[in-house]
Specification:
Layout lengths: L4 H7 L11 H10 L3 E3 L7 H9 L5 E6 L14 H8 L1 H4 L14 H24 L3 E6 H7 L3 H8 L20 E4 L2 E4 L8 H7 L3 H4 L7 H5 L3 H12 L6
Parallel strand pairs: 1-2, 2-3
Antiparallel strand pairs: 4-5
Length: about 240
């Protein structure tokens, strides 16, 4: 599918790649673009310097870097693995007695891209009324941290050492996140169910359906009772079609 001309056409829809020949061409794009986006860490880079010198009060400038433009980690390289390690996701995605795991490759960039789109859109909308743009300093690590469970981050900043979740992690081969149903494998996370009572009834786990400690999403994630639900679900899903 990656080599499909249809996919390539979709990914490049409404896009144009331009190879700049000189600074005058760059200045033209800076002056005419709705949003200027850079991902250069080195703020002394000639292109970054040109953007900073050329931008005007109405310019919307989005900088996406691993750790932002300010702070102790500004200017430090980073990637999907380092972002997962700094935000706690590497601690969540790990089996017992095995090394930590990063999230799917490039996911950090996707999340930062979505965050950048939302913030840039908000600034553009505001500019319609105020005439004023803004410089958006977006950190990939901060974007990813917003999506991480609090205990995953606390494991790092409270110096807890290895943290594999409220239940202590899972052994390899245990039915999470892939569960064996009657007609094949199905992927779901019990702690993430939004309609708890309905989900438990559907799975035939009525004894947990009206448990007041498990119905609220936030309380459920930190509740050891989830281990009991998980053990029961492993048996009940076997009798159900996906």
């Amino acid at each position: 599918l990656r080599a499909s001309p249809v996919l390539h056409a979709y990914a490049n829809w409404n896009k144009q790649s331009v190879k700049l020949q000189d600074t005058s061409e760059l200045l033209k794009f800076i002056d005419s673009s709705d949003v200027i986006i850079t991902d250069e860490i080195n703020q002394s880079d000639p292109i970054i310097s040109t953007v900073n010198e050329r931008k005007r009060p109405e310019t919307v400038y989005l900088s996406i870097t691993p750790h932002g433009l300010d702070g102790n980690l500004a200017g430090i390289n980073g990637n999907n693995l380092t972002a997962c390690a700094r935000t706690g996701f590497s601690y969540i995605n790990v089996y017992e007695n095995e090394p930590p795991l990063q999230l799917p490759n490039n996911l950090t960039g996707y999340i930062a891209g979505v965050a950048g789109f939302i913030i840039s859109s908000a600034v553009l909308h505001s500019r319609r009324f105020t005439g004023i743009g803004d410089t958006i300093d977006l950190s990939e690590v901060e974007s990813l941290a917003v999506a991480c469970h609090p205990w995953g981050i606390q494991a790092i900043f409270e110096n807890r050492g290895w943290s594999r979740g409220v239940l202590g992690g899972q052994p390899r081969g245990f039915p999470r996140p892939l569960w064996q149903a009657r007609d094949g494998l199905i992927n779901f996370g019990i702690g993430d169910f939004r309609n708890w009572t309905e989900s438990m009834n559907l799975m035939g786990l009525k004894e947990f359906a009206h448990d007041e400690d498990l119905i609220p999403d936030l309380a459920r994630h930190g509740n050891p009772k989830i281990a009991e639900v998980t053990a029961a679900a492993a048996g009940s899903v076997l009798d159900k079609d996906r």
